[in-house]
From TrEMBL:
InterPro entries: 6-PGluconate_DH-like_C_sf (IPR008927), DUF2520 (IPR018931), NAD(P)-bd_dom_sf (IPR036291), OxRdtase/DH_put_Rossmann_dom (IPR019665), TM1727-like_C_sf (IPR037108). Signal peptide: none annotated. PANTHER family: CONSERVED HYPOTHETICAL ALANINE AND LEUCINE RICH PROTEIN (PTHR40459:SF1). This is Oxidoreductase. Residues 152-277 form the DUF2520 domain. Residues 9-135 form the Putative oxidoreductase/dehydrogenase Rossmann-like domain. Transmembrane segments: none annotated.
Length: 312
């Protein structure tokens, strides 16, 4: 990357240790990261937001920081956080570059999991220094998230000459940098979506089903079980698997499907998909005995939408 800048502008090597920080997109992530950088001594100076919720969030987490249009954020800040949805990011970057809002030597950071540094190419051609810093964390958009960043892994992608700068920013926010190659960003993000987003869906569905079954406090029942399952899975991977699929209890699985078809038909497809995936992994890792797998897989393959689960 060409580190030459126009008169009056500094290179990263000459830049003061503390930076002025701007946020474009006051969603759940941007204000929290800016507040974390403020704790490290950086100075938030501008934020942009449109919705009432984003404006309230900015006021709560970044009190006193002026709300201005995106181009003005870039005009005021040395380090700019672009914290907008993945699909919005390319158009935003292109628009900022086309209108001349990007300044040479400006650190431009996006927090998209899917995209690497290449999405910032239009701004890079205008002289910006591109960094992709994605926190592997779910955000509430409140001050509690600042504490949650302690020890949080960040997926980091940047030009090699900016790698140390990117990792230093993550460390200042309390995170742990994890280098992700540009080409691996979509796969990296898919893995996080499976582990986090799908987990929320599974837990919410499990609580609904427990409520239907008459359990008065589904969350209280699930808490210890899921906590132990998560801890075991993180420690041991597939070896932590338990339950009827791993045991090859085809009759139990058939009974599950029959009850779901009666009481929660919307849950059948997800149950079958996860049970098939679980069976495949259990068989591959030697947890499911081959002689039991055949009956189990027959149950899972025969419970299509056109078959009455009560006949299983």
């Amino acid at each position: 990357m060409n580190a030459q800048h126009t008169s009056g502008q500094t290179s990263p090597q000459d830049r003061p240790a503390r930076l002025t920080v701007g946020v474009v997109g006051a969603g759940r992530v941007g204000p929290v990261l800016a507040a974390s950088l403020a704790l490290a001594g950086h100075r938030p100076v501008a934020v942009s937001g449109v919705s009432d919720a984003s404006l309230r969030r900015a006021a709560d987490i970044l009190p006193g920081v002026p709300v201005v249009p995106p181009a003005e954020v870039l005009a005021r800040a040395e380090l700019v956080l672009l914290t907008v949805p993945d699909d919005v990011l390319p158009g935003l970057v292109a628009g900022l570059a086309e209108t001349g809002a990007v300044r040479p030597g400006q650190l431009l950071v996006h927090t998209s999991g899917r995209h690497g540094a290449a999405v910032l190419d239009p701004a890079t051609r205008a002289g910006a220094l591109p960094l992709a810093l994605h926190p592997a964390m779910t955000f509430t958009g409140t001050a509690v998230d600042i504490q949650r960043l302690a020890g949080c892994s960040f997926g980091v992608t940047a030009p090699e000459e900016l790698r140390l700068a990117a990792e230093a920013l993550v460390i200042e926010m309390g995170g742990e940098p994890e280098w992700i190659d540009e080409a691996a960003r979509p796969l990296y993000h898919a893995a996080l979506a499976i582990g986090s987003n799908h987990l929320v869906t599974l837990i919410a569905q499990a609580m609904e089903l427990l409520g239907t079954a008459g359990v008065a406090h589904p969350a209280r029942m699930l808490g210890p079980l899921l906590g132990a399952a998560l801890d075991n899975a993180l420690r041991s991977g597939d070896a932590a698997l338990t339950g009827p699929v791993a045991r090859g209890d085809a009759g139990t699985v058939a009974a599950h499907v029959a009850q779901l078809r009666t009481h929660a038909p919307q849950a059948v497809a997800g149950y079958l998909a996860m049970a098939r995936t679980t069976a495949d992994r259990a068989l591959t890792h030697g947890l499911l005995k081959p002689e039991l797998a055949e009956d189990l897989l027959d149950v899972l393959s025969n419970t299509t939408d056109g078959v009455d689960g009560g006949d299983l």
